[in-house]
Amino acid sequence: MSFFQLAIILAVAIAGTAVVTRRRVSMPVVVGELGMGVLLGATGFGILDANREEFKFLAEIGFILLMFVAGTHVPSFATLDKHDLKTGIFRAFLVAVVSVPLGVALSKFFGTGHSALYAVLITSSSAALILSALGNYPLDGPSMRQMIPQIALADAFSIPVLPLVLRPDKLLHTALGALAIIACAVVLYVVLKYLVNNGYEQRFRTWSKAKEMVLELRISLVIIFLLGALAQTTGVSVMLAGFAAGLAVGAVGEPKRLAKQMFTLSEGLFAPIFFVWFGASLNLRQLVEHPHMIILGITLGAAAFLAHIVPVLTGQPLTIALMTAVEMGVPVAAATTGNQLGVLHPGEDAALMLSALITVAVTTVVATPVERVIQRESAAMTSKKVTHKRT
């Protein structure tokens, strides 16, 4: 791969971002990057060859960094109120329970044999997308406090389980690899916690900043890539390695300087490469050859909303319930890893992405009503505080 080709990839990623972030469209930037990859890849003009090893490797770096950033965005349960935590966990459990029969029904109807995979996809939420979309609004209202543990648990459950359901024939081998990565992440958390509690981490960051060595970023990348190497060795997707490392760092408290550096490295270079590569690797023409996969994608998206509105029975506002159905990281991971393992049917990867894009499109529509719920609850809390002060 030449510098010219790399420049073209990043340029088309910028073009895709510009299209979907217009005020009238306002969709996540990844949709534009995926779209440009589809246009220039196997589905479209064939300018970008997703089978080139250099392109694949750069994309895999983007994938693992993307999952690391997603892991750092998962809120810590330790900071949440017990009632809100219990409510959020119960709602996530309800969604998971409903997802199982839906996954089985879809698998049998379409004859794919992927009931467990569909159940995991339906259960999943994208905490990173949801929190990013609501980042400018206060999240201290009861609906938000209860939604955060719900989507965090859905993320924390779906990503480790996904490699297991993709290769049920090698369940023990995959489970041992996943456990090894999780164990390393736990050790990383313990070490980081010790360094933070004893002041070593703060002194190290101060010294690194003074010497302009960017050592936090370098060491973080070493850890991420070592976990990625472990994932490759054990036959587990690198998504789990990145996500587990992100969870460990996020649980301790990611320094703002490191967060900015990692965000810049990921979103500025490697994540766009990954999404353009992934779009280029998709062959949407297979949907024409296998039209039932279009129906699969639509019904998967519908099933996600059906499962996620069940918590409405527990008092969750409908618009927020619909918002929790948004999924992107898990379907992308499922399609990417499934293709690499050769376990998906022709056109099934595109069907998974179609279901994800449906959830993104619908939740984009309900974003404004959700904002109204947040503002109403925030105003009510402010009013209560004023009344309490007066009394």
From TrEMBL:
It is a multi-pass membrane protein. It holds the Pfam family Na_H_Exchanger. The chain crosses the membrane at residues 61-80, 92-110, 116-135, 172-192, 262-280, 292-313, 350-370. Gene3D superfamilies: 1.20.1530.20. It is found in: Membrane. GO terms for cellular component: membrane. The keyword Amino-acid biosynthesis does not apply. Keywords: Antiport, Ion transport, Membrane, Transmembrane, Transmembrane helix, Transport. Residues 11-369 form the Cation/H+ exchanger transmembrane domain. GO terms for biological process: proton transmembrane transport. It comes from the Bacteria. One of its GO terms (molecular function) is antiporter activity. Its main location: membrane. Belongs to the monovalent cation:proton antiporter 2 (CPA2) transporter (TC 2.A.37) family. This is Cation:proton antiporter.
